[in-house]
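Bug #77: duplicate submission created two jobs. Keeping one. Sequence:
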Amino acid sequence: MLNESFEMTSWWHHGCVPLEYGDELGVVPEPENEYDPGAIALYKGVRKVGYVPANRVEAIHRARESGAVLTATIEVDGDEEFGLSPVVLVQDDEARAPEPKETVSLGIPLGVALAVGLALLIGGLVICVASLWHLFDGTFFPRLLVGWLMILAAYLVFKYN
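Kept job's structure:
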C-alpha cells in the first residue's frame, strides 16, 4: 500500500505554478532525465510543476511496477511569498479504498423493517402514555415496561436494517 506525503521539489524552477488543495497531478517517470534517470515528474494537466523528492521515488517506482494506479493530490498549497513548496500526497488504489463498514441486517426487506419499526415505536409510545392512567391500579409498571421494550425493539429494527 502506498500512501506517501512529501514536499514537492523544483516547484520554483517551474514557475511556481498555482496549485490549490485537492488539485490532481500526473505522476510521470522520466528515465531520460539527464540528471537522475529515476526522477519522477509531477504534472498539472500538460504543464510540469515539479518533482518527487529523491528519497521517495523508490517507493513510487515499486508501486508503479506492481501495477498500482497512482493518484497525486495537493494537500497544502505552495506559497511563493513565504518560500513554501506545495505538499503532495501520492496514493495507490488500496490506500484510497474506503474502510469496509461492518453491518448487521435483520434479513428482512427495508420497507417491511421500517413498517415494523414504526409500528413498534408508535405502539410503545401509546402504551407508555396510556400507562399513566393506570398509575395507581398496580398495572402501571408492567405496562410501562412493555412500552419501553417496544420502543427498544423499534430502535433495534431501525439500527440493524
